[in-house]
Design a protein that fits this description.
alpha/beta, Rossmann fold, four-stranded parallel β-sheet, four-stranded antiparallel β-sheet, globular, binds adenosine monophosphate, binds zinc ion
């Protein structure tokens, strides 16, 4: 299967024609959320970006196995059991089981993903469900001589690995700079080298989340989970490995080292990284405390917001930036995206109301071609959106009788909208609950007016009093009746 798709590969630092290892099958692995707290909007941006990529690959006819893990174990600051991991810490604070924390935030994450209309992945494996696979992989790394054990903790030997391999192949950083800039973390006195990282961490008896292993009771290091789960479900070498850009320097660098040590190969042919959502130029992150919850955006309950924005307006806002560009969050930018989204949706709603003419004086084929060209050029969603605005302008112009469209072109236009607005960009029509409620109230008021004009005062009073009892006030005036919430 030949495609014209070109993707930017972080590994080679250039755009390459996308040629899957085993077309039409495509293996896609994306590092998923760490579920000890709610996801913020920055996390959502990365998952929405990969949803766009997944959707377009499906649209092109690839059979994609999309694996996105759930990190539900580990996450220490250092490499030794010097305190609780983040799951146990939260569980202790709330006096519940760590797995209750995991369950709560996994459900919350899935809900948010659904609200943003992202397609569910094909497999969503968890770290705690794959301890055996991680232990097996660590055993192989030990056998190959790239790891060593100290007091029940197993470290990856970066210095030994670097003798014959390029440890910083993904980011092209200089090893000396890396050594100079590495923070002092726990376990330094046990490690042979400053850059060594833990594959397995020895756990004290009081540590809640721990498992038996050949090296005693402990828990896996963070990086090994993605290596073990990606190779289990996608094979030792698969097509695309993705995640946020912040993961490239450590997590993905270490994943490559682990796979290379086991299988003499980098796990993925293409590495794709999404850029960061920022707030006033600073990366949105859990640790910086500048994270917005999606809920705060929808309700508008945040000091930086003047009102709430619908999930599709927020999705549209994210797609208006290319996934490799930073995107700065602001109320003004959201306001503009909201307007743009509504303009597009209003035009889509007119599609079925257009009259056709003998001949077209509009060029739909070129718009369609430019949409494919943009997506084939490393998933350039902002250019697709600009083209869809042009399509909206044409729809409005035909509706107003200022332009003419043939039946054949109208079909092309309809499929363009279906393919790009709904399937590829993953947008959908929204009716807000407020709108639904207003329509319902209009209907009730109409019923009451009918009762009144039929002199059926018993019914009209019944409606007025019934509404009053649930806190809705009806006022009759010269212009008709209005309602308000008490
Ligand atoms: P975490 O739950 O912190 O492991 O993050 C889940 C995903 O969100 C990872 O792929 C991160 O790279 C990504 N991510 C974290 N912060 C941001 C941000 N500000 N903008 C975009 N993606 C982010
Ligand atoms: Zn990962």
């Amino acid at each position: 299967m030949k495609s014209n798709l070109v993707v930017y590969n972080t590994l080679t630092r250039k755009k390459e024609v996308f040629e899957p290892l085993n077309a039409p099958f495509v293996g896609l692995y994306v590092c998923g959320p760490t579920v000890y707290s709610d996801v913020h909007l920055g996390n959502c941006r990365t998952f929405v970006s990969f949803d766009l990529i997944y959707r377009y690959l499906l649209h092109l006819g690839f059979k994609v196995r999309y694996v996105r893990n759930i990190t539900d174990a580990g996450h220490l600051e250092g490499d030794r059991d010097e305190g609780d991991d983040k799951f146990s810490k939260k569980a202790r604070l709330e006096q519940i089981e760590p797995m209750e924390i995991v369950q709560r935030y996994t459900i919350g994450f899935r809900d948010v993903m659904q609200v943003f209309n992202t397609l569910p992945p094909s497999i969503e494996p968890t770290a705690t469900g794959h301890i055996a696979e991680q232990i097996e992989m660590i055993k192989v790394i030990l056998e190959k001589g790239f790891a060593y054990e100290v007091n029940g903790t197993v470290y990856f030997d970066v210095e030994k690995y670097s003798r014959d391999n390029n440890y910083t192949i993904l980011t092209n950083r200089n090893m000396d700079d890396l050594l100079a800039n590495t923070r002092e973390l726990g376990g330094q006195d046990e490690k042979k080298g400053r850059l060594d990282f833990a594959l397995w961490i020895n756990a004290k008896p009081e540590h809640i989340m721990r498992w038996p292993s050949p090296w005693g009771w402990g828990f896996p290091g963070w990086h090994i989970e993605c290596s073990a789960m990606s190779s289990k479900y996608l094979g030792d070498i698969f097509d695309i490995h993705g995640g946020g850009m912040d993961l490239a320097a450590t997590h993905h660098t270490n994943e490559i080292a682990q796979s290379q040590a086991c299988n003499h190969s980098s796990p993925a042919k293409y590495w794709m990284h999404t850029n960061m959502l920022t707030v006033n130029g600073a990366r949105m992150s859990k640790s910086a405390g500048n994270g917005f919850l999606p809920e705060e955006l929808f309700t508008g309950d945040h000091p930086l917001l003047t009102r709430g924005y619908s999930p599709m307006a927020v999705r549209f806002f994210m797609l208006q930036a290319h996934y490799r560009s930073t995107l700065d969050f602001s109320n003004d930018a959201l306001e503009a995206s909201d307007k743009g989204f509504r303009r597009l949706m209003n035009a889509c709603a007119l599609l079925d109301k257009l009259n056709v003419s003998e001949k077209s004086d509009v060029d739909i084929d070129s718009i369609k071609q430019r949409c494919y060209d943009a997506m084939n050029d490393d998933f350039n969603s902002p250019v697709v959106i600009a083209e869809l605005f042009e399509a909206s302008r044409i729809i409005n112009s035909v509706y107003d009788g200022k332009s003419a469209i043939s039946a054949q072109d109208l079909e092309v236009l309809k499929s363009l909208v279906n393919n790009f607005v709904f399937d590829v960009l993953g947008l959908k029509e929204e009716t807000s609950q407020t709108d639904d409620f207003s329509h319902l109230m209009d209907f009730i008021i109409k019923l009451r007016l009918e009762a009144k004009s039929n002199k059926d005062y018993a019914t009209s009073d019944k409606i007025r009093i019934g509404l009053q009892e649930i806190g809705i006030q009806i006022k009759d005036g010269k212009e008709g009746s209005t309602w308000s919430k008490a």
